[in-house]
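Feature request, filed as a ticket because there's no other form

It would be nice if the structure record came with a short human-readable summary line next to the tokens. Right now we just get the raw output. Example of a typical job, pasted below so the devs can see what we mean:
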Amino acid sequence: MFSRFRIPRLQIVVGVTSAVLTTLALFVALALVLLTTFMRRETTLVDRAMNDLHEVESIRLDLLLYGRHSDVALLMKQPGARDLRKQTEQALRNHLEETTRRHLPERQQMVQNAKKQIENFLATRRSAESSSDSLAEVIGISSPALQTALDSVEQLAAFDLHQVEIARSMAARWDRFANALGGTIAILFLGSYGLLFVGLRRILLKPLISIHNAIRAFSVGQKASRAEEGGPKELREIADSFNEMASAIERHERERLIFLGGVAHDLRNPLTAMRLNLSMLSTTSLDEDKRRQKMIGLERQTARLERMVGDLLDASRIEAGELELKPEARDLRTLVKEAVELYAPTSPLHHIVATLDEEMLPVRCDQLRIGEVLSNLLSNAIKYSPTGGTVSIAAGKVGVDAVVTVRDRGIGISAEDLLLIFDPFRRTGASKENFPGVGLGLSVSKRIVEAHDGRIEVESTLGRGATFVVRLPLCRFAPEELALVASKSGHLPTVH
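Raw output as currently delivered:
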């Protein structure tokens, strides 16, 4: 069910879940308040009806006691009996007054009728006692009135008893409703938490377990392990980031193995050439010119090995964050001139053209490292122009930067390879098969230039050569630094 739609962000899931639970809790609280109110009201009605019934029963008892005490007082002719009858009459009137204050509107007529009949009985009794001393005669006169009063009280008692039954029935109904509502709420809570548990397990726990299992499998060597991209957006982003990282690590592992194979192959070539040259030098049949050529070949292969090992060391230092720079005040034109003088005689097929600005290009840099960058760019320009031709290098000022531009007319770089040209161990296009190297030179050069707060750029069209541009920030020198740099630079006119 959950896999049919994209789950929103985790904060939305948590917010909606909290809102649902809060709404359910508020509903339960409101239901409890209403139930408490209704139960209290029904309890009050039951108590009131019971009190009314108790008052009515007290009136009936007082009425009967009044008749008994009146008979005793008439018969005994004693003051104590008359006092007791008087107290009973007072209690009767008090109960009448009490039930009159608490009566319901619908029983008002019955209360008034009972009160009227009781007053009629009391008056009839007093009248009979004043006109006759015979107990039998008084009883005979007052008995109908007493029975009528008792009947009215009985009618009122029956009404109050009915009200008690109604109130109890309503209370029992509300009690059953409360029990049913409590059971329903319990089922709703259990169902909600069950759905919540299943949903959270599907939405949160399962993606987290997938990510955990993928990370664990990847850590024990299963490089193809990937996390399932499911659940809220945050977890999908985590899974996606892990998968990208795992793919990158897997790709780097493959590139590392390819790189090691390339290093072994590239080291074997100059070593083989050096061994052949040494073997030939060990013979005595070579004349001086051939011996000199073999020595030159040995020097070139040694320089090539030094360059490869230097790139490897620089790459390892950069990756370890241990690349040390020793910046000093330099004229960038001097470094360009030294690089040109170094590479001008290396290839008879290539002609290096250098154009240097007439004004000093003051930069603060590590002479050795920037020299490596320039040598790398010139070496690549020569290497990737196998048919020879002109390699141009220019140094000048553009805005606040000192800019060195190296341009060749060689094989060029395709548009897709331009995006990867500065990646370590990355050798693109035909260079992988046709040109020696381990693919570290440009990566190391880029890191060195960036360490000097500069940047390196490239433009190229396949088959039409490439242009590399190095930008370093110009700086101001102190007078003593300026004099020292000027003395080292000497006269540097435009060189061709």
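Something like this underneath would help us a lot:
The domain at 2-201 is CATH 1.20.120 (Four Helix Bundle (Hemerythrin (Met), subunit A)).
Residues 1-5, 430-436 have pLDDT under 50 and may be disordered.
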